[in-house]
Write a structure and sequence with these properties.
Elements: H1 6-17, E1 28-31, H2 36-47, E2 51-53, E3 57-61, E4 64-72, E5 78-80, H3 82-88, H4 92-113, E6 125-129, H5 137-148, E7 153-162, H6 165-168, E8 175-182, H7 201-213
Parallel strand pairs: 1-2, 1-6, 6-7, 7-8
Antiparallel strand pairs: 3-4, 4-5
Length: 219
């Protein structure tokens, strides 16, 4: 399974979501930036659901930031892979310091992407979206944040994930939806896209602008 672009992946996910969410649930699509934004925009356009952004950050190992041992949400709450932390011999202070640094980046991105704050989620169905997941902790953090904000139901929807990913969401979200589950031994989200360029802040802001022009962005 290869997606041409993130927007194409979003259109495919929109088809998967049809019938799973009703307008009465006042659904909102929450994109994890940056890569989840074009996916969420396509879903929003296809289904007519409003979208917004929830800024969460992966917590990476000090010697390999791409290897995540958890994530932090906008409230500063951490969601950790305790087994990996133990195997990597990370002490609590190191974990706190990394989380503090990433929380500063969250604040910076919030000022750029959601300067008016996050939308009201009380009683609503939140569809948390990214362009794919590897460990899944950023989606777990976004889902936890949505729950804390009062979301009545939380769905995580992604185009691609490793086959074991779904088990990590058991008990954390109400539904986990992945269009293509991969059994590849060496998994990377970018393997499943022809165009997987790193989005810039300007591109994210352009998607936000287009969503606002179509009355599809909250707040």
């Amino acid at each position: 399974m290869i997606f041409e672009t993130r927007e194409e992946a979003g259109r495919v996910l929109a088809e998967d979501l049809k019938g799973k969410v009703s307008p009465e649930e006042r659904p909102i699509v929450l994109a994890i930036p940056r890569g989840g934004v074009p996916v969420a925009y396509a879903i929003s356009r296809e289904l007519g659901f409003p979208m917004s952004i929830v800024v969460v950050r992966k917590l990476g190992l000090p010697w390999n930031e791409e290897a995540g041992f958890g994530a932090v949400d906008p409230d500063g709450s951490t969601y950790l892979d305790e087994d990996l932390i133990s195997r990597a011999r990370l002490d609590p202070k190191t974990v706190r310091d990394i989380a503090r640094k990433e929380l500063e980046e969250i604040r910076s991105r919030e000022r750029r992407f959601v300067p008016d704050g996050y939308p009201c989620l009380e009683g609503r169905t939140a569809v948390v979206v990214d362009d794919g997941i590897a460990t899944g902790y950023t989606a777990i953090a976004a889902s936890g944040f949505a729950k804390k904000r009062g979301a009545g139901r939380v769905i995580v929807a992604v185009p691609v994930c490793p086959k074991e990913a779904g088990s990590r969401f058991a008990g954390r979200v109400d539904e986990f939806l992945c269009h293509h589950t991969s059994g590849e031994f060496s998994f990377a989200v970018g393997m499943f896209y022809r165009d997987f360029h790193q989005l810039t802040d300007e591109e994210v802001l352009d998607y936000i602008r287009k969503a606002k022009e179509n009355n599809l962005f909250e707040p």
